[in-house]
Amino acid sequence: MSHESGTQAKRMIRALKGEPVDRTPIWLMRQAGRYLPEYRKTRAEAGSFLDLCYNPELAEEVSLQPIRRYGLDAAILFSDILVVPDALGQEVAFKEGEGPVLAPITRVEQLDELDLGGVVERLQPVYETVRRLKRSLHAETALIGFAGAPWTVATYMVGGRGSPDQAAAKLWAYRAPEAFQKLIDLLTEATILHLSAQVEAGAELVQIFDTWAGSLPETQFRAYSLAPTAKIVKALRGKFPGLPVIGFPRGSGALAVDYARDTQLSGVSLDTGVSPAWAAKNLQSIACVQGNLDPLLLVAGGECMRSAANHILDTLAGGPFIFNLGHGIVPQTPPEHVAELVELVRSAKR
Q1: What is the pairing mode between strands 92-95 and 99-102?
Q2: What confidence tens digit (pLDDT) does each residue in 135-162 have?
Q3: Half-sphere exposure (CA, 13 Å, Cβ side) for 33?
Q4: Which of 173, 287, 166 is CA-nearest to residue 233?
Q5: Which of 37, 42, 155, 236 could form a disulfide with 166 if both were Cys (CB 3.0 to 4.6 A apart)?
Q6: Which residues contact 340 (CB under 8 A, 6 or more apart)?
Q7: What's the pLDDT band for 57 if we cut at 50, 70, 90?
Q8: Which residues are known catalytic residues?
Q9: String of DSSP letters for 1-38
Q10: Is beta strand 99-102 parallel, antiparallel or unpaired with respect to 142-148?
Q11: What are the angstrom distances between the C-alpha of 217 and each of 111, 169, 222, 243?
């Protein structure tokens, strides 16, 4: 199955292949979410957050809401990176005001209790959402599948929740690297299965979110962020030649150059801290770059938002580039600011 055919008109795909586009494509991380009143209404209908992720009808609806409003160049599947540990058999819950809470994995013996063989079967509702979106989207709108990177997912599995320093996972990796590698290997295989099933269901490109890559020193970054991502990309391309894959090694700084080159990614998503001029000089010749407006500038709106967006466009739109944020949209974002940003990017000269 090749991803060369049938998608040539889509700006997202063209940009990721380094082909010319008539205007800069735009989508936004967490574009479906709590800043939209229609999302809050659907979320209330669903019950728990995981119930929403596993309800194909409602997950399709929230994936389509920002597309209806803004006509973005891509829809991203509404799901969560923690459906993978849930499908492996770890206890995962989302608590109001607390975020995700997991039964922590602290011993290598617990890894034997996780079931790789059941992942695809358990996540069938997610793939049904992808199939529904594929049927619903306009021909020019690309469909993005995604997963968390093994390192980032491991930090939640080991720590039992999000943390500011990922200390639990880092300490395990430092003290018992061979045992920790077993978890990374398991998650690498699970991620390959999960992303492959999304592509088979209709996703035309995928993004791998390594939200906590930046907390790793260089040696561990190469072992636990770069190497697993390279393995995932290679496996996906073996099954789906030409599949565009974007990586988001948030906080990786100058290591993003080796990450882009050594993983063979099509695109690298830039966090807010990356200088667009540095990215143009060091990354854009290796891969398409995506980013990187500060989500809080989208909250502020007005001239500061327009000025920053124009700076990013002026610096990066001369090469392979997709406009996005440096991290996800935050709940307090006014929807009208998103509309203004989309219009600004859409009308910018290439």
Answers
A1: antiparallel
A2: 999 999 999 999 999 999 999 999 999 9
A3: 16
A4: 287
A5: 155
A6: 301, 305, 306
A7: very high
A8: 30, 34, 43, 80, 156
A9: --SSSS-TT-HHHHHHTT---SS--B--TT-SSTTSHH
A10: unpaired
A11: 25, 13, 9, 30
